[in-house]
What does this fold into?
Amino acid sequence: MDRMQRTTIAGLAIVACVAIVAAAETKKEFRFSVNGRANVSVDTPYGTVTVKPGVANQVLVTAILASDRVELDNGQKGNRIELESHLLKGGDEQSGRVDYELTVPPDTTVSLRSTAGPSLSVERLRGDLRLEGATAKVDVRNCSYGHVHIRTMNGPITLTQVKNAHVEVTSISGDIHLNSVDGQLVQVGTTSGRIFYDGDFGLAGDYTFTTHSGDIEALIPGGTSADFNAHSVQGHVQSDISLSPKEHPMFPAELGRSFFGTMGKAASEVVFKSFSGRIRLKHADKTN
Amino acid sequence: MNCTDVRRVLPEVMDSAQDTEFQAHLKSCPHCSELVADLEWIASEARLLAEADEPPARVWVRIAAELKAEGLIHEAEVPRLRPVLVPQRRRWSAWWLVPVAAALLAAGSYVINRRAEQPVASNTVSKPETPQVAVATPPANQPASQPVPKPARKASSPQVVSDVPSIEADTLDDQQLMQEVSTRAPHMRASYENDLRSVNAYIRDAEAYLQQHPGDEEARQHLMDAYEQKAFLYQMALQQAQ
It folds into this structure.
C-alpha cells in the first residue's frame, strides 16, 4: 500500500509539473487576410518555425510562447505580414522560446530567421524562400519554382524534392544535404561543412559546389546528362563513373586533384571545387 | 494736445483708439483729422499690394549702389563662424561591426586585385617541375581517356607581399567580435568561436596559396568566398547583438 501511495504521489507530482509548465505557456493565434501574393516574415531568436501550405488568401499563425519573458509583435501592411518575437528582461533560450506554425497560400514569399532554432521547416510551397539562422536546423521539402536562399552558420541544411528552383545555400560549418534538387542555378558553399548531393543534376542547369575543407560527395543515376568539372587544390578527387573526355576542361589536369568529362548529352554543367576537401562522384545504385 | 504734438506721436498712437487726448484733438482739428484719414487709407491700400506690384530687384540694387556711393550705407560685416564642439555621448554599439564586415570584403577584393596585377609567377601549372608530393593512386577503373598525369607543383618560397591585410587588425576585430558575442549571447560563444576559426583558416590557406600562385583564378575565387563567409559571420553576430 505504501508503494502504491508513493507511486500515486509521484504520478500526481509529475502531472502537476506538466500542468504548471503548460500553464506558463501562452498560445496565440492570428489570422491575416491577403489578396494576391503574400509576403510573410518571421524573426525569432529561439524556437521552431514550421510553414505549410493552406488556403488561398489567408495566413494562419499559431504561436506558443514559453513564458512571459518573451513578446511577440505582429503587423500587416497590405499583403506583407511580419511576425517578430524578442526577449524581455530576464528572457533566455528556454523562457524566450516561441514556436510558430504557419499555413500560407502556396505561392507565398517566406522569410524566416532564427538565431538558435532549433529548426526552420518549409514544405510544399511554390514561392520564394529565404531562411537564415545561426545554429538552427533547416529543412525544405517539396518546394518548387521559387528562389531558395538559405544561410546558416553551423546549422545543418536539408533540401528534399526541390524542383525547378533557383537555389543558393551557404553554411560555414553545417552539413548540406540535397536530395532530388534541380534547377537553372544551384549554388552550394561551405567552409568546413560537408556537401552531399543525391540527384540527376537535371533541367540543364548550372550546379556549383564549393568547400574549403569539407568533403563533397555526389550520387548520380545512370541517365544523368551533365558536364562535370572537379578540382581540389590540396585534397583528393575521385570519380567512380566513366566520363567521356572533353576538349576544354575548366581546371588544369592533375591526377588525383581533378577530373572532368561528360555524361549523356552534357545538358547541365556541374562544378565541384574544394580547397582541401575530398571530392567524390559515385553511382547512386552502386553505393558502398 | 496741439497739431505739433499730434504729428510727433502719430506713428505710435495712430492705430490706437485708447488715447483720448489724440482722439479729442482729431475731432476738433479738421487738418489733423484729414491727415490721419489719408495715412489710414494709404496703409489699407498698401496691404492689398500684390507681389507683382513690387518693383523688380534691379531697382533695389541700383538704389543700394547709389546710397553706397554717397557713403550713406556700408557693407555689413559678416561675423566669422567658429566651429562649435558639441560633446557627444559615447555609446557602445555593435554597429561598428557593419563597417568592419564591409572592410573585410573590401580588403579581400583589394588583395585579390593587387595579386592579379602582379606578374605571373614562374612556377605556373603549365611548366613541368620536380614533383615533391606523392599524388594518390588513381582509381582502378580510370578510363584511358583521362589526361596524362602532371607532376605536382613544387612549393616555392613565398614571395614578399606587402598587400596582405594586417593579421593584427583582423585579430583585434575578431577579439572585439567575440567580446560582443560573449556579452550579448554567451551561450553562442563557442559556436561563433569555432566558425570564426574555420573561416580564418580558410582565409589563411587561400591567401598562402595565392601568394605562391598569384595567377590562379580558382584560388582567388576561394579567397573571395572565404571573405564572404567571414562577412556573413560578422553579420550574424551583429544581428545577435541587437
Notes: Chain B touches chain A through 42 residues (CB under 8 Å). The two ends of chain B are 78 Å apart (CA to CA). Chain B has two domains: 3-69, 93-115+161-242.
